[in-house]
Amino acid sequence: MIEQVNDSMAKLLDNLEAKVNQRDAALAFETSLPLTVATVLKVDYSDLGQWAGKQLGVGNVEITEANNDTDHDFYVDGTDPQEFEEIVEKAVSQRSIAIWEARALLNYFCSKGQVPAGNYLVSVCW
């Protein structure tokens, strides 16, 4: 049992070290392209749908109208309640929203203090 835990921890540390090395290499790379390093909050679309459904008390909110292997970025700050109230009502009544409506749903949860403001990347892979 202890050996399994040690092996798992070693794999996690190796993975973390590889990610840090990859990040450091990207930051050290010299290019004339004006790049900006940004922090994003990444979530899988199905995890978002399940979590949102649970928070709204409807079980699951299906996120539709998205192509496979795509990422959708949204800025979320919890403002514009008229926009997100309509989408939240749709999510509750139909238990389904389109991918582009995920921004309004995230804004709703941000306004309630359930998710932080920031740049979100919703990944779709099925």
**Which sequence of strands runs across the widest sheet?**
1-5-3
Supply the number of helical segments. Answer: 4
Structural class: alpha/beta
| Uncertain regions spanning at least 5 consecutive residues | none
- The radius of gyration over CA amounts to 18 Å
Shape: globular
Binned strand content: 15-25%
User: How is the biggest beta sheet arranged?
Assistant: 3 strands, mixed
Average pLDDT taken over every residue: 89
Share of helix among residues? 40-55%
N- and C-termini, Cα separation: 34 Å
Q: How does this model look, in words?
A:
- With 126 residues, the protein is an alpha/beta fold.
- It has a domain at 41-124.
- Helices cover 50% and strands 19% of the residues.
- The protein has helices at 2-28, 45-56, 81-94, 102-111, and strands spanning 41-44, 62-64, 70-76, 96-98, 118-124.
- Helix 3 (81-94) crosses helix 4 (102-111).
- The two termini are 34 Å apart.
